[in-house]
């Protein structure tokens, strides 16, 4: 039997494209006939707007309830993107690190929920908030794999430090097996900008040193942003858009992982 992939989209920085990537990967996965759930661990409500839903005011219908002691396995997923194969669990601003700080084994609440009440989807995407806190620790502890979107506007050294922080945090959680980083995904790329080309080169060196795949850069692309604004995946608005190939490549890799471990 194929095993479920739980993919955390993680990054130290905000605005690097985690939610955009989550939505577009989910759509590609579903177009291949597979089921996918995205869990929103952020409090900024962007996931729901990127898939055309309104914010959910009832916290019991959101991710917050997963972190309640009484969670009974009713995941409250909503079908989105005009596909019965894609569902999301909406985020909630009341879910904060402080809120779960007094719990025992507080880093493992999501992981335990997913083990006790498994989701049927072959892919579960965890759309994380920026930075590492108790909530992102929960994503790390629950995940089988990690994808790190990066902004091309930062320094290569910052990226190296950021990956190191994720690796250290994962080690501290003493996970067995630990999640595997499937790749780095540079975003907001401007073709021809000299400093970005240099950065990509430096990134290539970091990636090969750490033995992590570097995906082709995602261009700063108005059509991608427009699709999010319309609450759709890029492939829904522009099926032939070349950027869709990058999401396709990541999904190819996820399928490979699913079949070969
Ligand atoms: N390649 C791109 N081209 C143009 N706009 C983009 C691209 N990638 C993301 N965006 C836009 O940049 C903004 C930030 O993207 P997104 O919300 O996906 O990032 P994030 O990492 O999830 O941010 P946050 O940390 O705030 O949750 C959004 O307005 C999105 O539409
Ligand atoms: Mg986001």
Explain what the structure shows.
- This protein has 261 residues and is α/β, with parallel strands linked by helices.
- It has a single domain, classed as P-loop containing nucleotide triphosphate hydrolases (Rossmann fold).
- It has ten helices and seven strands.
- It has helices at residues 18-31, 46-50, 97-100, 109-116, 134-142, 156-172, 194-210, 222-229, 234-237, 243-260; strands at residues 5-9, 36-40, 78-79, 86-89, 123-127, 145-151, 180-187.
- It has a seven-stranded mixed β-sheet with strand order 3-4-2-5-1-6-7, sandwiched between helices.
- α1 (18-31) crosses α10 and α4 runs parallel beside α5.
- The longest helix is centred in the C-terminal third of the chain and has 18 residues, at 243-260.
- It starts with a strand and ends with a helix.
- Residues 18-19, 42, 46, 127 line the site of magnesium ion.
In short, what is this structure?
The longest helix has 18 residues, at 243-260. With 261 residues, the protein is α/β, with parallel strands linked by helices. Helices cover 40% and strands 14% of the residues.
What key phrases describe this protein's structure?
single chain, about 260 residues, alpha/beta, Rossmann fold, seven-stranded mixed sheet, binds adenosine-5'-triphosphate, binds magnesium ion
What's the layout of helices and strands?
Layout: E1 5-9, H1 18-31, E2 36-40, H2 46-50, E3 78-79, E4 86-89, H3 97-100, H4 109-116, E5 123-127, H5 134-142, E6 145-151, H6 156-172, E7 180-187, H7 194-210, H8 222-229, H9 234-237, H10 243-260
Parallel strand pairs: 1-5, 1-6, 2-4, 2-5, 6-7
Antiparallel strand pairs: 3-4
Helix pairs in contact: 1-10, 4-5
The protein binds adenosine-5'-triphosphate (ATP) and magnesium ion.
